[in-house]
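assembly run, all chains below
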Amino acid sequence: MSQSSKPPQPAPVPTSADVARLAGVSRATVSYVLNNAEAVRISEPTRRKVRRAAEELGYVPHAAARSLRAGHTRIVLLPTSHVPIGPLYSAFLNELQWSLRRLDYTVVQYGSLGLSGDEAARAWAELRPVAVISLGEITLSAHNVATLKRAGARAVITMGPVGVAGAHALVMDQSEVGARAAAHLVDLGHRRIGVVVPQEEGLELFSTPRLEGARSVAGAEIDALPMAYSEESAAALAARWRSLGLDAVFAYNDEYAMLLMRALMDEGLRVPEDVAVVGADDLLIGRLLRPRLSTVQIELPTGDHLAELVDRAVREPGEITQRQDLISAVAVRREST
Amino acid sequence: MSQSSKPPQPAPVPTSADVARLAGVSRATVSYVLNNAEAVRISEPTRRKVRRAAEELGYVPHAAARSLRAGHTRIVLLPTSHVPIGPLYSAFLNELQWSLRRLDYTVVQYGSLGLSGDEAARAWAELRPVAVISLGEITLSAHNVATLKRAGARAVITMGPVGVAGAHALVMDQSEVGARAAAHLVDLGHRRIGVVVPQEEGLELFSTPRLEGARSVAGAEIDALPMAYSEESAAALAARWRSLGLDAVFAYNDEYAMLLMRALMDEGLRVPEDVAVVGADDLLIGRLLRPRLSTVQIELPTGDHLAELVDRAVREPGEITQRQDLISAVAVRREST
DNA sequence: TTGAAAGCGATACCAA
DNA sequence: TTGGTATCGCTTTCAA
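ok done. output:
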């Protein structure tokens, strides 16, 4: 009202000083009231004045200023995957976020698309996160971990297949998945087993250990079978199937398994008589196909569990560089094996 | 070496002052060198000294301090969905992130799990993002938009089904999807059409407009069919199917469609003779079933496109409150209709 | 070509 | 019970 000329000049963001001015108190008082400081007694009328002023101005504290002053943040950095990770991991991630928020952390998913490990680590470090939970998209080197720690990270947790020096190596070992699948097939009498390796980028951190896990099982010969997630690729693989001399296949996960199984059947092969097919992840969709898809059911840690581990690591930053296997896998036989 | 007693006291994070000290220059010079300031000429030897010192200390600038000083951030906030959004939207999101990063924005996905619109808006505002792209998980009120704008957001973009006052209402109208599906079924002679409405929370912003879209098509009677994403729920719906008197169903998306189609077939109904089924999203898996699933193929805007829209809005914060339809949908007939 | 110093916004210590 | 003020790390203007 008082200012008639108001060009699209963005109105200045209200600060705590503005609140103080409006309430007729000092900035210190504003801070005390808004943060419910217990060490200081503020009269009820003053509290109300301050709150009303804050409300009226639509005051929102400036996170950067606050953490600058505090010397630390409550940010937990969650590097975002750029590959579709499937419903299983999505659900886990959501649970994790929720649990972390309950513990009063600010979860920031940071997409690291197209960044190298070094670039990513630097970019993350700029935010001064108190913890980083790297789920494997980017392989952190010991040097990267050091960068993060030097920037104040009290916990760096990797979930990739391998431990990293200096990190709280929380191993979710995907090789177990491959091992269960192969063992399942071997139990059923199969000896020549193909293992699908997705050609899509970014899945190596899952596919490599799954393949290695299968290889670790005694009693079978393992062949790696590169395949892309497309009908063409599956058809091409199916077309040369008879020449491969395989009697079973672990198809990386349920999605690749469904694709390949369809291609094999279209090629005139019988499942499971001519070739047994097993996937992984126990997707609901796998039960809709005929034959129903056998799978490896994967049990991830609960988000709560991991969140508490993080919280503990943050509070007691003793070098708890321990290997922990938080994943479990079990084969489920349906009709395709 | 010089300090023998080193308790687990976290080493202090190196600052630009430390770099300056080590390089034997002032903090100003450090800043100039590290930011490649063009307005100032710094001698090559000095540059090298500074860079070496920064390298040696593993110096990483403090994002909070920087943006505090600058008075603004380059953060684009992307509220994270807590529902599995499927490969289609995942791919779109990734592309968007990538494009924004190319434009030098810091993309921060902020999980808003369990927050109300007000709480979420406040939490986001604390980060002082320069732009917010809300994809619909949380319905932003005009008040929320105002909060964000007051906190310095120069662009607030909503992708929900409805425009929001004050926001750059970028409408990705899901009703088009429902309309296409219904029209497809009507074209094929169906008159009594069921529309599946997922019971899962968080999908309303997609499912409601899809239902409304179907209702908008002339020539058919539309029934809403609540259903959860589980075999039990699908079976229950299928069990009472004959009593519903429907001759076709638009099953929200391909996943629900596959589930329901299987249940219907298990119930002895023929697809498409007794009941036509159409999904949406054109998932690869839908082509693997028999009959192959008809679907509505959805064309999302490219990430590049949206990123540039955001960038323009940020640079010219004129109130471009315009409705834009960036989504297109087309029915694809396979075998289930 | 380089340095000294102000100031961004919030907090917490020390006085009053 | 409340206020003044130093401080966090960084950028940038003004002087030297």
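Residues 16-61 of chain B form a domain with the 434 Repressor (Amino-terminal Domain) fold (CATH 1.10.260).

The longest helix of chain B spans residues 86-102.

not gonna interpret more than that til we talk
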